């Protein structure tokens, strides 16, 4: 999609407000203050004391703070917003920023539901501002290396991820209906779309909660996704599995016509294939610092970045399809998830310009793929 570029003829850094001064907000503040490409203009949080504490922790107690990201950005002359609020606040905070003429770099998930995510994609169109989702694994150099290997395997039959860990978080994850699928699995789901360069067609998922689980919701999930072209992606995970824990990225296998690529999630992936050595993986970016660099470059150049909202929505749709499949006890088509979310988005939309953008879509798939 085309969006308004923010040129810098003088090479001055982009002035940003970070909104959300929680655990992940602090990680972003570290990255923002270490970057030469951006300058921290202020910190916003509904809890202004939390914003003040975050500023003090950077030895910047004089930094402007506030409860509202747009008001703070306008007061400080900021040019963009980094949204690290809780998922339920992603839609209102990002919509307000885009409407005020501020591009947004937002934490995953794009929103708390696919319907709200579609509204955000339409809001980006209506305002002509860039909204990029930071899905941190996209900028993991080992994932890029695995993608380069995958491209050498010919047709791919199966991709699998095994994820088995036993974290005791306390807090909201312990109370959610689907903590593993909703809070964690979006990372590998986004990664498999990136690896294959294709989109999911259907999901078949079972979730359950082992008797010893310390979560209220289902901590175990096994899902099979069919992708365009017939590749199956198998996700097998648990968040209450003590012993022999996998890495936080899980353990990956890509099984193709000409061989297999393996990744333990922590060290460089390995290729066992007729084709010999993998091509050099190319990514100059790493983690959320990489996402920030890509965001600034996109704003300077006007070129659409990986993670632009339209392109990101299908990762959340995989989560929603898996949850719906587990509830229904049958396979669920991604197109049905999208159509249902689209109807909900139209019904719930408060803004006329966003509704007009949504109404102009010929189909949700086409709109997300950038085709009108
Ligand atoms: N990429 C990753 O690996 C990763 C890891 C952890 C969290 N996250 C994501 O980061 C986001 C934040 O997670 P967290 O763990 O920091 O949460 P958190 O609860 O620690 O912090 C969220 C902060 O947002 C503030 N907030 C809520 N609504 C707001 C609003 N409308 N306006 C301004 N401030 C508001 C809260 O007061 C709180 O201080 C979530 O989307 C989460 O999924 C990503």
Automatic annotation (TrEMBL):
Residue ranges of domain Gfo/Idh/MocA-like oxidoreductase N-terminal in the record: 14-133
A GO MF term: nucleotide binding
UniProt cross-references to InterPro entries, sorted A to Z: Gfo/Idh/MocA-like_OxRdtase_N, Gfo/Idh/MocA_oxidoreduct, GFO_IDH_MocA-like_dom, NAD(P)-bd_dom_sf
Occurrences of domain GFO/IDH/MocA-like oxidoreductase (ranges): 152-261
Protein name: Putative dehydrogenase
Organism: Motilibacter peucedani
